[in-house]
Please model this.
Amino acid sequence: MNLLVTGGCGFIGSNLVRMVLAERPGWRVVNLDKLTYAGNPENLADQAANPRYRFVHGDVADGPLVGELLRQERIEAVLHLAAESHVDRSILSAAVFIETNVRGTQVLLEAARETGVGRFVHVSTDEVYGSLGPEGLFTEETPLDPSSPYSASKAGSDLLALAYGRTFGVPVVVTRCSNNYGPYQFPEKLIPLMIANALRDLPLPVYGDGLNVRDWIHVEDHCRGLLAALERGRAGEVYNFGAASERRNLDIVRQVLERLGKPESLIRFVTDRPGHDRRYAIDAAKARRELSWAPAHRFEEALAETVRWYVAHRPWWERILSGASRDYYDRQYGGR
Ligand code: NAD
Ligand code: DAU
Model:
């Protein structure tokens, strides 16, 4: 199988590429990544010499490049992860989210249509459903009601993917997963940011009252779900992934501090995120039933393991935080 992964130098993409190369010995992986601030070739440095792996530096919104790549590499399936992925950045500056997440997805779908790829998995998010109240779960039938420019751009790209299925017969599958955590997550997202700040005795910025709820899933469980969707998903269908691990942000921050032996006095309640979704929770029954998929990690143990990974890989995140991300951090948290 010749597989194109987009965004393979990011958090989920790099975990996925490593998993595919280890567990699907007959597959060849081409990774198309633009190397934005979030893309880090170091995440896959251990695969650089693998003869079944090729990295291509490029933009998913570059039509001629994408078309040529699909033809030249005889791509049979696409796992599309490339995206601008951070909600707070989409609030500071939305345009690139439309360019990459909406237009980039359309360009890729068009190339997939022209070259006749056998499967196109569009990797989306539960954020397209908007916010839940205290009760209930997101199912695949929950109406789309995105709150941020990020989630609106993902909802737009989901609908484009499904439309390319209905109109042109492109065999698309859309996946919507809850919040991921694990190794190689960029230290702007809640869990790695809190770990990195705590390790440096910096304030831990908690938005609003800290009682917003996210439904956490380990990145390996998500990646196994994506492979299941690729291999067993029905064309034109949507599959939710989640691990039934609802936690309040504040409880997670406290757990991180406890694991690191740091005081709760590091917590700073800061101005809330505009349009901040209160609660996410996933009903993953369809994926369990149709894809024979189930998450394997338990949250508290896997969080402890994740904390240990960040402690052991301090140079990895320190290099990232000392670069251009410094400017973003000052813009995002400077006035709070
Ligand atoms: P990430 O920000 O860590 O990585 C994104 C990758 O895409 C980077 O390597 C970046 O360089 C690349 N990229 C960005 N723009 C590109 C472009 N125009 N062309 C080619 N490459 C480009 O993101 P992530 O957290 O790994 O998320 C991956 C995907 O999974 C995204 O589509 C996201 O919406 C989705 N998702 C993420 C989560 C989560 O909790 N992180 C949950 C559900 C779904
Ligand atoms: O649900 C899936 C989504 O999860 C993905 O689609 C996104 O790509 C991914 O970034 C993530 O979005 P969130 O907005 O839920 O994740 P984030 O880590 O930014 O924030 C998690 C929660 O923590 C949220 O309620 C906001 C809060 N938070 C976040 C940051 C960065 C804080 O309180 N302080 C912070 O500094």
